Amino acid sequence: MRFVNKENVSLLVDLYELTMADAYFREGKNGIAVFDLFARSLPKNRGFLVACGIYDALSYIEGLRFGKEEIAYLRESGKFSNGFLGYLENFRFSGEVSAVPEGTCVFEKEPLIRISAPLVQAQILESFLLNCVSFQTMIATKAARVCMAAKEKPVCDFGLRRAQGMDAGLKASRASYIGGCAGTSNVLAGKEYRIPIMGTVAHSFILAYESEMDAFRAIARNYGSGCVFLIDTYDTIRGAVNAVKVAREMEKEGKKLGAVRIDSGNLAKLSRKVRGIFDEEGLKYVKIIASGGLDEYEVEKLAWAIAPIDSFGVGTAMDVSADAPCLDMNYKLCEYEGKGRRKMSAGKTTLPGKKQIFRLEEGGAYVRDVIGMEGEGIGGRKLLVQMMREGRITWKIPGIEEIRKMCKEEIGKLPVEVRKIKNPSKYPVDLSEGLLAQV
Amino acid sequence: MRFVNKENVSLLVDLYELTMADAYFREGKNGIAVFDLFARSLPKNRGFLVACGIYDALSYIEGLRFGKEEIAYLRESGKFSNGFLGYLENFRFSGEVSAVPEGTCVFEKEPLIRISAPLVQAQILESFLLNCVSFQTMIATKAARVCMAAKEKPVCDFGLRRAQGMDAGLKASRASYIGGCAGTSNVLAGKEYRIPIMGTVAHSFILAYESEMDAFRAIARNYGSGCVFLIDTYDTIRGAVNAVKVAREMEKEGKKLGAVRIDSGNLAKLSRKVRGIFDEEGLKYVKIIASGGLDEYEVEKLAWAIAPIDSFGVGTAMDVSADAPCLDMNYKLCEYEGKGRRKMSAGKTTLPGKKQIFRLEEGGAYVRDVIGMEGEGIGGRKLLVQMMREGRITWKIPGIEEIRKMCKEEIGKLPVEVRKIKNPSKYPVDLSEGLLAQV
Predict the structure, then answer these.
(1) A250-274 residue pLDDT tens
(2) Fewest CB atoms less than 10 Å from the CB: which of A44, A107, A286, B316?
(3) CATH topology classification for A8-140+324-353+384-414
(4) The domain at B200-291 falls in which architecture?
(5) What is the ipTM score, two decimals?
(6) Contact in structure between B143 and B318 (CB atoms under 8 Å)
(7) Where are the alpha helices (DSSP H) in A187-235?
(8) Residue B188 near residue A11, CB atoms below 8 Å
């Protein structure tokens, strides 16, 4: 099995970035280039994006080196000049990076990252930046949507098993925590990012015992107070009745059942019936966790149906952002040697020049953004802040709790219609006079 | 930036797998369990799946160890017994694994992997196996569909930038090569898996020069014969006219332009116009590469429109399997201590017992599968073969070219209606008498 690591990540790049860089290198075409990383359009039903993956991108840029083994492979491919391979041996990024802090809400055409560096260097970064930032932004956005749909009820990320590979499994947990999840089932994410880890039991646990009652008793015995019974392995209602019996046994031992989880069937109906059964038995303290095929649309339906669900486990659809599994994100040259550049391909035009995003606020709420030129005096908050100078990170990267808090505040400041799960309104983003003069 | 590596991958697991394992451990409940990994149903428009990710799974199982740092984190979480943590320190998988070889076509409910091991061990594997096999199988399947749609024309994987994270970027290239792609733009995949790497140039290259002609000349100068001009940066038709001029200049120097790439607009119309321009100028040898928003449905439309496209670059939709970004794959206990186990949850029933898949062939074509009990004498080819015994891989893992070839043969043996891109017929999969007797 192959892992991507600090060394070989330098080759996690589309071939053409390196062959283009080689051509630039040979031609001595290495003036300062400005590239923007931005989403050309937002996916269906998205009124905003939550920027994420920015700090991994910074770390990648600062640490990018081409090792011996990697250079040897490039040489062996026969596609590169010796001069360029020598250049790669000593590669260090020396440019400037400005970006929006993670957790910031952004909209279409707004640069999340702006690179200003010698052309050869800036070119080489493209594939990784797109891969890293599109994915994490997409997941943070999706999680924010699920959490909005759940109102104030906690959502736990259960998606590791459905994530697209190992890295997605790890990073999606971080992104979904930033987007508002209360924790993750993913132990590695807990360790690496210091986020809360959570879990219940699987159906296999219930099946491994002779009867459901035996399994519930084993859970009570091993996990103690606060434990969770999974009640839908055979029949949810009978499962609830069995859970009541074992909850009573627990009470006799001074322990309290924490919750039951329902993972299949009509969750609105079942949760109401199960709630009824527990309430009648005086077990109002037992909470109900719902999971199984949930996404923001299903969670919102359950909220509308006033289903007595206390928290949600959401995985599959969230960790792959199932209704929008990729973002139309781009990394485009917008200036070369101080001169604006602009692509005109059908439906794919870009904005030239070294830009800035100005966010205008009124009475604690965001009212509009203006994309303008870096130097323009437009007012409002400048979203792009310098995070790297001469190839070194100069930005104090905040802790994950701080990023998560900022994300919540950002979303809270958006117009309500922009926050809608379905058919949100478009947030107003204008182009400045300075920018329009260049277009 | 965090990487998943050989050491910390042991924690890439849902918390409940470990807490369940702890409970089993404490209760001495560690009899031989049989788990099946299978897709409950096939995604929309899928008539079959191409098994992939199996060999990574084997490698994971054989190498699974819990290191000091990982154990320390688990201890610190306060969720585990000391006895269990001691057990993990010396963890070695000791069970048996049977699986279908990578490249095999499989259908719903058919186990791709069957684990037979002490319960505690088998439980711990769940999250990783699902993550690994679902994703790679999904991508190999998607790529096979794109390649079928392209008929015999080469398809190159351009999807690294859209893949969901680093590992997906790496593994999707391998899976898509197995599924039939001719190569990948992903340099790391080229190095790690020894698959062909391919590339052209990006729009930024064209934009970095004063004019399109200058850029084309730079490509000709730097890449020589066989090079590719990207002609849609400003206007595709004018791009083609400029390409003709530079192709003529190349001819004078004894070089030949390889191809032009069109990455936007109406690819069928544009490719016909561009073909016309080149043919009129006697440049019939210049090929046309199409890319930009392609998937199997678009490629099939282009094939129907008899667009004069020679090869396709497909990325975004393929590398995330956009129309089906996750598989409904499951890992379910089907036997414990020799006794069949069966989940009955609504819409989620499972098949009990230690099973085998029997594939029946007539005249070189597959006619039906039977899922039966391991010992049954049903005939046909047994798809599940033993790959690991007593925790050691015993299967000679084939080279990637062999896997790719096998995949092509497998797909070729499927009924034509099952291979359809849209609304395929269901391949007949029956349950044996022996299995039905257990249900």
Answers:
(1) 999 999 999 999 999 999 999 999 9
(2) A44
(3) nicotinate phosphoribosyltransferase (3.20.140)
(4) Alpha-Beta Barrel (3.20)
(5) 0.96
(6) yes
(7) 187-193, 203-207, 212-223
(8) yes
